[in-house]
Write a structure and sequence with these properties.
The structure is a single chain. By secondary structure, the protein is α/β, with parallel strands linked by helices. The protein has a single domain, classed as 3-Layer(aba) Sandwich (Rossmann fold), CATH 3.40.50. The protein contains five helices and nine strands, in the order αβαβββαβββαβαβ. The strands form two sheets. Strands 4-3-2-1-5-8-9 form a seven-stranded mixed sheet, sandwiched between helices. It has a two-stranded antiparallel sheet with strand order 6-7. A hairpin with a 5-residue loop joins strand 2 and strand 3. The longest helix has 19 residues. The N and C termini lie far apart (75 Å).
Length: 193
């Protein structure tokens, strides 16, 4: 009798352990493999274009193990961060007004977003006006525009907080070999879209 109860107890214990170890999707969310940060310096005449791009991101985004995070600095609102989901954009953080075309400030924002959205891989999309690789103020060859202020590509490269797995530019003239050269050794891939 004792052995039968002992055997029954062991069987129930094994079943309980087996059931508790089974995977339930609601209890175990998909691990985050990649965080993609879109840095939209749109405190200029591109604000409405940026809003259209954000809507396009919402409609086309597949959330399988990826965070899609947008830093958005529009002309008519404070800079803020959006977390993009399928059909949604949740405003998760607001900033006081600052120059989004300042490389040091950009580096601070990127560092904060990397800390808030950890992943195995990171991608960066730089979105704004672009004029390629000559110094800011030369009327050509820089990235970003915040009410007429731009950042030099070298300053941009020096203030990136980590080695991104890829960098994309959604900005005019940023697909030049000179821009890629400025980012050499820092990034794996630079592509102009």
């Amino acid at each position: 009798m004792f052995q039968e109860r002992y055997l029954l107890f062991c069987l129930i214990l094994c079943l309980a352990l087996f059931v508790s170890c089974s995977k339930h999707d609601s209890l175990h969310p998909t691990p985050i493999n990649r965080t993609v940060i879109v840095y939209m310096a749109a405190d200029n005449d591109l604000t409405n274009d940026a809003r259209v791009n954000i809507q396009e991101m919402q409609s086309g985004f597949e959330e399988k193990g990826v965070n899609l995070i947008v830093f958005f600095d529009p002309f008519d609102d404070l800079p803020h961060v959006l977390q993009i989901g399928r059909g949604s954009a949740t405003r998760v953080k607001d900033y006081l007004e600052f120059n989004s075309a300042d490389a040091v400030q950009m580096g601070h924002v990127l560092s904060e977003l990397i800390e808030l959205y950890p992943a195995q891989e990171y991608g960066l999309i730089l979105w704004s006006h672009g004029t390629a690789w000559l110094p800011a103020g030369s009327m050509l060859r820089s990235f970003g525009d915040d009410r007429g202020r731009q950042m030099n590509i070298r300053d941009l490269a020096e203030n990136l907080p980590l080695k991104f797995d890829f960098i994309l530019f959604d900005a005019c003239l940023m697909g030049s070999v000179e821009v890629a050269y400025e980012l050499k050794g820092i990034k794996k891939l630079v592509v102009n879209v």
